[in-house]
Amino acid sequence: MTTLRVENLVKSFGGRHVVRDVSFSVAPGEVLGLVGESGSGKSTVARCVTRLTRPDSGRITLGDRDVLAASRRDLRALRRDLQMVFQDPYSSLNPRMTAGALIEEGMLVHGLEPDRSARRARAAALLETVGLSPADLDRHPRSFSGGQRQRIAIARALAVEPKVLICDEVVSSLDVSVQAQVLNLFRDLRERLDLAILFIAHDLAVVHYLCDRVAVLDQGELVEIGTREEIYGSPRHPYTRSLLDAVPVPDPSA
Amino acid sequence: MSLLAIHDLRVRLGGTEVLRGVDLRVGAGEKVALVGESGSGKSVTARTILRLDRDAEVTGRIDFDGTDLLSLPGRALREVRGARIGLVFQDPLASLNPVMTVGWQIMQPLVIRGVRKKEARRRGIDLLGRLGVRDAARRFDDYPHQFSGGMRQRVVIAIAVIAEPDLLIADEPTTALDVRVQAQVLTLMRELADERGMAVLLITHDLGIVANFADRVVVMRHGAPVEEGPVRRIYASPRHPYTKALLAAVPRIDGDRDRRLSTVEMEDR
User: Fold this and answer.
1) What pTM did the predictor assign?
2) What is the CATH number of the domain that holds B20?
3) Which partner for B168 in A160, B86, B111, B219 could form a disulfide, CB atoms 3.0-4.6 Å apart?
4) What is the complex's ipTM, to 2 decimals?
């Protein structure tokens, strides 16, 4: 079992603690929502997990592998297993590459599919997985809409068959109709692939739709973690309650 | 009679028709939400009311309290802007002058209309306190960077409403704010509007915030309204397929999680 485990994570910038003793785990086939307001430390947690930022202390493991102690060589394999999708599909895709080349890049880096035509066939299949068409292989990012670009970014992450997908605000810049497509895609992927997904978001309604368990961060501190039913049905921490109370409900009679 | 009556508004920007015949009315004291996705033309509508896009080719009529804003000369238009129509945009930092104190900026709409400084200051501090800024008298002389995002947006609202406009146009005023701050700012805007009988045109992509704010909703798509009606009717029984699909695409915390979000009738553009 390749469960992602984060234990007692601490990170400070310039003497200010932005992550204080945070612990959680995400199992294969599970979506854990990490919610909080701006400055809560949720993105810093993601950056520590992918080793884009070095934490002050704590332990991060993927299965029996130690993420923080990984050597350069081990890190390469780890990065394959831990893929990340970012908020902005406009800046995270190289505009000079075609959708096909963007998806194939990871396979090449990790030596997954040495045969050229097999690689292209897999890129085509991945485009279909995310609801696009093999005919889109030779198109450049600028010719796609925001939602389509985000789906290319997801296909690109999936191309290396990761164990864990870390999604940082991946739908927050999308229109609701496009957001709905991407959220439905995540649901399908979760059922089809045995992925562990760490889904970082500020939108509690989005998290409610997608996540099995929810962790609530307030100023770097994990104040509550539980199943979706627990967090939304009977939140214990006053901070969680105040967040939920503020969520606008699209119903004038509510 | 409507305070604001837009008739067959058409706008071309750089050769592209971005508004294709908008009709819109806002009554005195009425809170109207203009809802749509990106590219629907909701922001262009707001900007065109105040003629903020200089290179836009505009046809149609925009009657504000009986005067056609489109035929108004520049000076008269500037008098309407700020005094009779207040404006709030999404990004409070971009709307504030970083080298002037927030107090100076809040007082400006009054000072340029001849209100004495002492009186302007008193009213400014009063309003800022009313908008939930604690210790308003002391904070009045602070600079924008000394305020948090939510507090800055309160300052922007104060600047927009200090001259007691008849209409407040707010373009995505809470989109950049955290959810708890968003709820506070919306409540304040609504209370202020109700107290003063000020009409509000709220431009937003967020169907959630509209439900508890607006009296009436106008749904826009591709540069034209597709449906409008009282807020309860729109949410309870939307008529246009696009409105239906839009409502069914919104995840909600009180929603049935097993129901898939609708993407029907949506184009991926």
Assistant:
1) 0.89
2) 3.40.50.300
3) B86
4) 0.84
